[in-house]
Amino acid sequence: MFEMGFMEDIYLISEKMPKHRQSMLFSATLPQKLTDFTISGMNDYKLIKLDHEHKLSDDLKVDFYFMRTMDKIPALLFLLHEIVQKDETSIIFAATKYHVEYVHSVLQAANFNTAFVYGSLDMEARTNAITKFRRKIVKILIVTDLAA
Fold first, then answer.
1. What residue segments make up the domains of the chain, in order of their start?
2. DSSP 3-state assignment of 71?
3. pLDDT at 56
4. b/e for 45-61, b at 16 or more Cβ within 10 A?
5. Strand order of the sheet with strand 140-144?
6. pLDDT per position as a tens digit, 112-121
7. Measured between alpha carbons, how far is 20 from 25 in angstroms, rounded to an integer?
8. Which of the two ends of the chain, N or C, has the fewest CB atoms closer than 10 A to its terminal CB?
9. Contact 89, 140 (CB under 8 A)
């Protein structure tokens, strides 16, 4: 919310909140502006950072590919057909729920069994998708950055 331009709204809401409250902030990144905002409204705070060397499993394989937009779907299909092992699970990140649904429909048409999660999906559907992925009923989970 902070990076999407809601900083002023967050300030207004926090000013209306009771002074004696517990506030918690969770963020994958912590830019200086966000740190300054967080500290400004707190008297006694604790910062807990996860060390990237200790939070990732040794079994996790992460790859990044940079390419033109028009090459992304063909490249994804190639990777899933030729590179990803049949017993491996994969999470695909997409920008919006519309992108998630599009990638899901393309992969379904290519006979991949997938599940998807995005923020506005109802809780039961999200839970079902994640359960199927964890139990390896589906090997591919497509998510928005926000849902991730």
1. 1-49, 57-144
2. helix
3. 61
4. eeeeeeeeeeeeeeeee
5. 90-94, 140-144, 114-117
6. 999 999 988 8
7. 16
8. N
9. yes
Q: Identify the residue whose tokens are 């409250």.
A: 21
Q: Does domain 57-144 have CATH number 3.40.50.300?
A: yes
Q: Which of 71, 107, 63, 44 is nearest to 116 (CA)?
A: 107
Best CA proximity match to 79, nearest among 90, 68, 69: 90
pLDDT, residue 147, reads 58
Buried b (16+ CB within 10 A) or exposed e, 64-92: eeeeeeeeeeeebeeebeeebeeeeebeb
Residues 1-26 have pLDDT tens digits of 666 667 777 778 777 888 777 777 76
What's the token pair of residue 99? 């992108």
